[in-house]
């Protein structure tokens, strides 16, 4: 028996025509989402970031443990320290850790170890996954942590796009420096570093092709 109090589910219902139209509209809107590396310094209201995080927190999670923490950084000194630490790791990756194949795959994107956007953008959202919870001295397990936090990050990126902002999923490796710089507790591990803001006026993005439907959808009917 469920121990949670239950309430009636109240969702939206559409006829077939509306259903198809909404799915097409949503796809066309989402297809415009792009990863951006050139950010404006234009400020973003904190309330917008707060609501974006709340939207991310509506994601499903294993046993409803919600094993995530969203650290929002706007302090210039902390952003500078994060950039310095991230660039140190990235420089080592580009100059020895990455395989030749990896470097060849990145070459068309024009990326390198320098990450000025970590200071330019008004906010950095650092997502931590909570491996377990501490209830006093007692550890309580979380379940499907990476899967749950990954879904929440998808919700986060969609909410950012919905707000008319842009983002970049940045994963300097290793990322342990984020735990130290932000003084996070021992039960958390850095998962994703996401600069968020407005695109720079002259922002450019690669002219990429996304996979067609028949490359990603496999029907068993």
Brief characterization of the structure:
The protein is α+β, with helices and mostly antiparallel strands and 221 residues long.
Mean pLDDT: 95
- Please give the CATH class: Alpha Beta
Helix content: 25-40%
Number of domains: 1
Instruction: Give the name of the CATH architecture.
Output: 3-Layer(aba) Sandwich
CATH superfamily: NADH Oxidase
Low-confidence stretches: none
Task: Please provide the count of β strands.
Answer: 6
Order of helices and strands: HHEHHHEEEHEHEH
Per DSSP, the total helix count is 8
Rounded radius of gyration (Å): 20 Å
Principal-axes geometry comes out as globular
Give me the secondary-structure category: alpha+beta
- What kind of sheet is the major sheet? 4 strands, antiparallel
* End-to-end separation: 35 Å
Question: What is the name of the CATH topology?
Answer: NADH Oxidase
Explain the overall architecture.
- The chain has 221 residues and is of the alpha+beta class.
- It has a single domain, classed as NADH Oxidase (3-Layer(aba) Sandwich).
- It is 39% helix and 15% strand.
- The chain contains eight helices and six strands.
- It has a four-stranded antiparallel β-sheet with strand order 1-2-6-5.
- Strand 3 (132-135) and strand 4 (138-141) form a beta hairpin.
- Helix 2 (46-56) packs across helix 6.
- The longest helix has 22 residues, at 76-97.
- The mean pLDDT is 95.
